[in-house]
Write a structure and sequence with these properties.
47 residues, mainly alpha, 3 helices, YjiS-like domain-containing protein
Length: 47
Amino acid sequence: MNIRQRIAQFAQYQRTVRELNALDSRQLTDLGITRADIKNIARGKTL
């Protein structure tokens, strides 16, 4: 993976974390996730 791809991947990670953190607890519960899951989800890891 070259540096350009890594930067794009990190930007996507940050965007995903920011968007999920913007949701309230009820919305996260509706999606079946907790705040503790957000970073793993942003990394693409399954629960």
